[in-house]
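Sanity check

After download, print the first record. It should look like this:
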Amino acid sequence: MAFDALDELLDESLELPIAGRLYTVPAPSAEIGLRTQAIVHAAAVAADGGRVDDQVLGDAAERDLYAELLGPAHEQMVADAVPWPALKHAAITAMVWVAQDKAAAERYWNAAGDPSRLAPNRAARRQSGAASSTKSRGSTSGTSTRPAPARAKPKGNKKRR
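Expected structure tokens:
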């Protein structure tokens, strides 16, 4: 069995609809993909209170990242006078695609970047069965099978003879 050509197996582009137009974002180069991965990782470390790598998260490192991630779609969006929030959302969607996968990018896009819309609500979890997959911890009525610690006898209440 021989390997099929990878470019025929992978659908490596995003189709992003903005204001009635479809913009095609091609897969970034390996260099841009690796740099994006490093930036996303460094940002996550910084968000968790870790030490920030100024070289990775510096302004120079991020300056052209949106344009590089969007590729020719960036130039088309600028020429079409796409509003900044839409261009930024497209670029961050591409960043999610590179850092995670196409399904995560689609979820981010469809949630308009709103984290509260990304997490399913309780009713949706119940319908999916996800809520029932957690096992019960058992009774927490206050009873315990462990013996109570021994109490020390009070000092100072001795009777004198």
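If your output differs, re-run the checksum step. Summary of this record's structure: The radius of gyration is 27 Å.
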